[in-house]
Amino acid sequence: MGGQKGIAFFNDFFSKTVSLTCVSVKKNDVAAAKNYEVLPLLSNSKLRYINIFYFFTLKKLIKEKQVTHLVVEHPYYGWLGFLLKQFCGIKLIIHSHNIESVRFRSIGKWWWRILWQYEKFTYRQANTIFFVTEEDKDFAIAKFNIVSSKCHTITYGIEIEKIPSSEERLYAKKQLQQLHHIGEQEKILLFNGTLDYQPNLDGVEAILKNINPLLLADNNLKYKIIICGKGLPSGYNELKDFGQKNIIYAGFVDDINIYFKGADIFINPVTDGGGIKTKLVEALGNNLSVVSTKSGAIGVPGALTRNKMFVADDFAWADFAKAIRETDTTLDTPVLFFDHFYWGSICKKASVILTEIA
User: Fold this and answer.
1) How far apart are alpha carbons 45 and 314 in whole angstroms?
2) What is the helix (H) or strand (E) element at residue 330, kind and residue range?
3) Which CATH class is domain 2-157+342-355?
4) Contact 23, 58 (CB under 8 A)
5) What is the model's pLDDT at position 273?
6) Contact yes or no for 249/261 (Cβ under 8 A)
7) What's the mean pLDDT when you consider all of the chain?
8) More reliable by pLDDT, 242 or 281
9) Which long-range contacts (CB under 8 A, 24 or more apart) does 100-108 make?
10) What SS3 class is residue 182?
C-alpha cells in the first residue's frame, strides 16, 4: 500500500542523514531495510496498539541507544509517544499520513469522532508534526488549534530524480503491448491501487460505470484501460469480463514500475479517502500524463505539474473523459516537480527541522 511504501522509502532516505533505528511489527522483512536497523519487536495483532508493556521495552531501548528523537508513524501510538516523551526526555515527532479521523468519516466509520479527539490530543503533545500535504497541515492548525510553528509539510516522495529515458519508456510500453495484446495505436490508460480499500474500489466503479462508457462512445479514440491491484472483492468478478469494453484487469503485478513507465495516461477518479494519493506522485515521476479528480489531486500543486496534470471537479465525469481524449502525452513532467518530490530532498528537509526543535 502507498502508506507502507512511504514509510519504507522515508526511512531509507532519512537514514542517510540521521542515525535511525526502526521498531516494527514481526511480519516485516527485516532484510529489506538496507541502510538502517529494524527491530521487529511489535506484535502483528491489532492489540499491539494498547499494549502498555511496549513502554518498558522502548524506554530501555531509548536509553541503550541514546535516542534523542522519536518519530511515530500515524497518531495511533500517540499515548505511547507521550509517555516516552515524559519519562525519557526525547523529542516527539508525529509523522501524519492523513487526518485519520476525517479519512474514516469519509468512508462512513461511526467512531471517527472518538478518533478525532485522540488525534487532536496526539498532535498537541508532539514537539513537531510532519504532514504529507499543505491541506492537512492547514486543517490541523485550524481545527485542532495546533501551534503553526511546529507543523511542517514533509510530503510523500519518489526515488528517482528525473524522468525515465524515452528508451526506458518505449521498452516498457512494448512489454505491456505484448503482455496484454494492446495495439500500437492504442493509448494505454492506467489505474492502480489496493482494491479492498473502499476509496480505490469506488474509483474502479467510476471507471466502469461513468468514465469508460463515455470513452466507448468516441469511435475515434483507440485505448485500453489497465487496472492493477490486489484485493478485488469476490463480487467484482465481472471486472475480469470487461475485455470487450477495453478494460484489462491485471490484478496484482510483480513489477508496477513497468506499468508506470509504459502507460500513456494515469487516471485517478478517486473522490475520497483523504491525504496525498501516492500513486499519482509515482505516475508523474515516471512522466505519465495524469487526469485526476480534485480530491484525488490533493497534495500535488498544479504549479509543479503545469499541463502534465488535468484536474476535474469531483464526479464531473464528462470533463474527466474529455481530458483523457485531449491530453497531450508528449509533454514532460517539469523539473520543479522533482525538486519538490524527490525523497533525498524531502528527508534532508526533515533532518534540518529535527535539529531546530526547541
Assistant:
1) 37
2) none
3) alpha beta
4) yes
5) 62
6) no
7) 93
8) 281
9) 100/74, 100/75, 100/76, 100/274, 102/139, 102/274, 103/273, 103/274, 103/275, 106/199, 106/272, 106/273, 106/274, 107/198, 107/199, 107/272, 107/273
10) coil
Q: Residues 278, 5: contact at Cβ < 8 Å?
A: yes
Whether the CB-CB separation of 291 and 263 falls below 8 Å is answered with: no
Give the span between the Cα atoms of 133 and 114, in whole angstroms. 23
**pLDDT band with cut points at 50, 70 and 90 for residue 106:** confident
Residue 294: strand, helix, or coil? coil
Lowest mean pLDDT among 79-83, 173-177, 192-196: 192-196
pLDDT at 197: 86
- 3-class state of residue 346 by DSSP: helix
pLDDT at 34: 85
Q: Whole-model pTM? A: 0.85
Locate cell 505516475: which residue? 283
166-337 has which fold?
Rossmann fold (3.40.50)
User: Is the distance from CB of 43 to CB of 25 less than 8 angstroms?
Assistant: yes
pLDDT digits (tens, 9 = 90+) for 124-141: 999 999 999 999 999 999
Split at pLDDT 50, 70, 90, the class of 237 is low
Looking at the chain, the number of H-run helices and the number of E-run strands are: 15, 12
Task: Give the three cell numbers for residue 57.
Answer: 521495552
DSSP string, 107-137: TT-TTHHHHHHHHHHHHHH-SEEEESSHHHH
DSSP letter for each residue of 199-230 = HHHHHHHHIIIIIHHHHHT-TT--EEEEEE-S
Domain with CATH 3.40.50.2000 in the chain: 2-157+342-355, 166-337
Q: What is the DSSP string of 28-84?
A: S-GGG-SSSEEEEEE-SSGGGGG-THHHHHHHHHHHHHT--EEEEESSTTHHHHHHH
Is residue 249 within a helix (H) or strand (E), and if so which, with residue range?
strand 247-251
Q: Quick one: the chain helix, strand, coil %, rounded to 5? A: 50, 15, 35
